Amino acid sequence: MKTYFRATDPYPLEASDWNKLHGFYDALAAGRLVSTRCDGCGHVAWPPRGFCPECASDRYTWVDLPAEGRIHGFTVQHAGLPAGFTGARVFAIVKVDTHRIFSVIIDADPSTVSIGQRVTLAPIRVDDDPKGNARWLPAFRPA
Question: DSSP string spanning 58-118?
């Protein structure tokens, strides 16, 4: 019989103690969407990476991505929502520049969401980490 372990913490460990990409979460807290640009070849990755998927360099610079995008695809979840989420939740793939970002759409009536709709960045604060530090996830709202 196989044993399956369930993660007890559904949110990433964003603190600098645990994650060298904590700058992504720091930027979200400031209302900015950022990613990593390779200092070797210039490739801008999504999601942010500690090494370049093109040339394997581990040297990178944080760069701002546009705070506006368009919904590329979406689904509405009515049941089985993650802890802390209420009501119908719109999960979407948002195209920002050349990147596709999996996110949630907030402050929107699910019946009015559509493919191609313009959205703007609106990071959401989720449960604090075990040390009481704020945690952030990328989210968007209709423009």
Answer: --EEEEEPPSEEEEEEEEEE-SSPPTT--S-EEEEEEEETTEEEEEEE-S--GGG--TT-E
Total residues belonging to the chain:
143
Those residues with Cβ within 8 angstroms of residue 74's Cβ, 6 or more apart along the chain or in another chain:
90, 91, 92, 93, 105, 113, 115
For the chain, the first-to-last Cα distance in angstroms comes to 50
Which residue's entry shows tokens 């929107």? 108
Q: pLDDT tens for residues 39-83?
A: 999 999 999 999 999 999 999 999 999 999 999 999 999 888 777
Q: What is the model's pTM? A: 0.83
